[in-house]
Every structure is written in C-alpha cells, then in structure tokens.
Amino acid sequence: MNIKHIFVSAILALSLFSNQSYSHSFTPSEIVSSVDWKNMQVVEVVLNEYSITPSSLAFKKNVPYKLIVKNIGKGKHYFTAKDFFHSIATRKVQSNHDGEIKADFFNALEVYPGKSLDLYFVPVVKGVYGSACTISGHKESGMSGTITIE
After folding, report:
1. How far apart are CA 12 and CA 117, in angstroms?
2. Which of 19, 77, 106, 142 would staple 47 via disulfide (CB 3.0–4.6 Å)?
C-alpha cells in the first residue's frame, strides 16, 4: 500500500469515527433560523464553589432559549455538558463584555469569577443529560446536575 492509500484510509477512518461520535440528524443553522427569537425564554444557572444552581434544568424541544451561565464563585468554573451541547442547535455564545462566538456545537463553557456567558440555543434531541464542573474535585464535591429536554 502506498502513502496515498494510507492517508486516504486514515481520513476515512477518522471521518467514520467522527460521524459515529457526533452524528446529528439535524442542521443547527436551519433550526436556529426557523424559530421566532422574539419568543425566547431566559433561564439562569449559577456556578459557585461546589454547586450548580439550579442543579436540574428542563427545556422544551424546538423552543428558543437564552441560558445565562453566571459564575459568582472565587475561581473559574466550567459548565460542561457535552451530550447536551450536541443535542441542541446553537445560535451563539455571547460575552456581555467581549463579543460572541458562533459555532454549531460546544463541549463546555469556561466562566471566570464574577462573569457570565449567554448561550442562545434551540433544544432538538429529547433526553436527560449530565452537567458538571470538570475542575479537579469540583464534580466530586457536588458541582453537577442534570439537563432534560422534553
């Protein structure tokens, strides 16, 4: 087998793995543009030392939301919810001071002390998903929760 065949085989393998790990039966940009953002619901989640409040969040499928992720703690915290983030159509993540990031999917949001990030999204895939701060020891100390898409 020559180098070209090895390269093509590697690309195909990576693409198959990627599709299995992150396959979506929806196109985020189409969903985001099809909803009425004037009817957006606003939900706030607060990160603090060893807590996510509320620890359980619930969202309705196909309804536009703005999730405010606020850190009132003394150190940075992560709002990690990879499976949830891959079950929503993301419009953007916005910092109220620095700008915004537009991407179809995220794995986690890092929020600095005294700051917040706004996640604009539409829930797409029903299910129950976990959330946690992935800083060492934080999840184990109670900084975790669940997110439900109904």
Report:
1. 36
2. 77
DSSP label of 34: H
pTM: 0.82
User: Burial letters for 115-125: b for 16+ Cβ neighbours within 10 Å, e otherwise?
Assistant: bbbbbbbbbbb
Residue 96: predicted pLDDT = 79
- Give every CB contact of residue 148 below 8 A, 6+ residues apart in sequence: 56, 57, 58, 59, 127, 128, 129
For 66-87, the pLDDT digits (tens) are 999 999 999 999 999 999 999 9
Q: Which amino acid is at 146?
A: T
Cα(93)–Cα(96) distance, rounded to whole angstroms?
A: 10
67 to 11, 14, 122: CA distances (angstroms): 36, 33, 10
Omega cis (within 30) before 54 = yes
Task: Classify the C-alpha dihedral 29-105-60-48 as positive or negative.
Answer: negative
